[in-house]
Amino acid sequence: MGLPLVRPFRTSFGTSTEKVCILARVETDHAEGWGECVADLEPDFSAEWNGSAWGAITEFLAPALFRAGDVAAKDLEGVFAFVRGNRMAKATLVNAVLDAELRERGVSLGAYLGAQRERVACGVSIGITDTTDALRAQVDGYLGEGYQRIKLKIEPGLDVERVEAIRAAHPGILLSVDANAAYTLADADVFRRLDDSALLMVEQPLHFEDIAQHASLQRQLRTDLCLDESIRGAADAAAAIELGACRIVNVKQGRVGGVLEARRVHDVCRDAGVPVWCGGMLETGIGRATNLALAAMPNFTLPGDTSASGRYFPEDLTEPFVLAPDGTIGVPAGPGIGASPLPDRLESCTLRRETLRP
Ligand code: SMG
Ligand code: MG
């Protein structure tokens, strides 16, 4: 068993009850660095999953890294270019190598990325519940803790009425929905009805690889669409914006190949006047620390899915990240990502370990 979740997290594609992920620890002559892979137990959110990422890292990416010799994180895109896709696997090593570099230099990831704030505004993503009452109770609880934006997972049949119930209970909150690609253009009417709930955005309503049909849907709606799964990097973001497929972008560094490509997504969106926010993949404290640094960049103007450790795990792998009553979490200030696994904690939940050497 990996890290148990505080409660099951149900989306339109399945239910998670535990977190099992790959952590890379790279060792250089002067420092160590950590990278967390955002793949999960099954290839459901994306084509990548823990097994494919483990294989990509151990069979192709790590050997290429060793062959390349003395490389910096910024060179890894080229070193890894012979492997197509597998962005979550690549992100694991890019982030770990960058973390080691920054720890050696004594620079925080936030400072390296040009972070402009010491604390970031946090939202929370709420899974699909059995009943509307249960959903209302969770929303009330998270708002009470201070979360600045509520995102509801939706799926066909559990959408408009649920959203209307939450909107009626909380007329003024920042409220959004995430469909995780569960709908088709034939469902456009669902989204036209949601237009009356003053949502901050509708995230990834259509197919996980689509851009063109999202553009068609966006033309039919007042509410802003946000793309998540469809954005694999800066080129996709540029195409989606150009085609009018979304007006907001969810940046997940793990999905796009690491924090360096995530910064390029940020920059493309900033230049086009499109706000971004930091997505989440139920990360442990390692990925969370990485996300918090990213979320402190200037064009991250909307609260992200960077919730507190306690929203996910009874016990995190690192010192826990805590939400302040104003709905913010501090950006780690230490060198690199500014967080490390607690050794005993890591040991007690490690399922598999492999040491790779040049
Ligand atoms: O880390 O708080 C989190 C999860 C946020 O909803 C969330 N993530 O599509 O944005 C998304 C989902 C993907 C993960 S589902 C296991
Ligand atoms: Mg999403």
Structure description:
The protein has 358 residues and is α/β, with parallel strands linked by helices. The chain contains 14 helices and 13 strands. The strands form 4 sheets. Strands 6-7-8-9-10-11-12 form a 7-stranded parallel β-sheet. Helix 1 crosses helix 3. The radius of gyration is 19 Å and the shape is globular. The protein starts with a strand and ends in a 9-residue tail after the last helix. 50% of the residues are buried. The model has no long low-confidence stretch (mean pLDDT 98). Bound molecules: N-succinyl methionine and magnesium ion (MG). Magnesium ion binds next to loops.
Query: Reading side by side through the largest sheet, how are the strands ordered?
Result: 6-7-8-9-10-11-12
Amino-to-carboxy terminus distance: 31 Å
Helices and strands, in order, run as EEEEHHHHEEHEHEHEHEHEHHEHHEH
Helical stretch count? 14
What binds here, in terms of ligands, is: N-succinyl methionine, magnesium ion
Beta-strand level of the residues, as a percent range? 15-25%
Major beta-sheet overview: 7 strands, parallel
Total strands: the figure is 13
Structural class: alpha/beta
Q: What's the gyration radius in Å?
A: 19 Å
Mean pLDDT, all residues:
98
**Which range best describes the helical content: under 10%, 10-25%, 25-40%, 40-55%, 55-70% or over 70%?**
25-40%
Question: What form results from the Cα inertia axes?
Answer: globular
Low-confidence stretches: none
